[in-house]
């Protein structure tokens, strides 16, 4: 066999192996339990509440009135936490 033909045969074989491994089925993701799903949902809720409060702090820093910022906080927190302010209370 000529060296150039051998090169192309080897290259074709390598390409075939690479293609086969690329199309191989990925391993199945592990099944999540209801407890894991609840934990992920709780984490997402905490992050959403934290973002709402961070946005409220930025609103106050921008010079807007407390009433305006609390109104936006109420909207952002709707359905997330208990009470009008995502369940957080502090004195003032």
What does this entry look like structurally?
The chain is an all-alpha fold. The protein has a domain at 40-81. Helices cover 65% and strands 0% of the residues. The chain contains 3 helices and no strands. Helix 2 runs antiparallel to helix 3 (66-77). Mean pLDDT is 75; it is low at 6-11.
How do you describe this structure in short?
The protein is mainly α and 92 residues long.
**Beta strand count:** 0
Note the run of SSEs as H and E. HHH
The quaternary structure here is single chain
Q: Please, how many helices?
A: 3
Labels describing this entry:
single chain, 92 residues, mainly alpha, 3 helices
How is this fold's topology laid out?
Elements: H1 3-22, H2 34-61, H3 66-77
Helix pairs in contact: 2-3
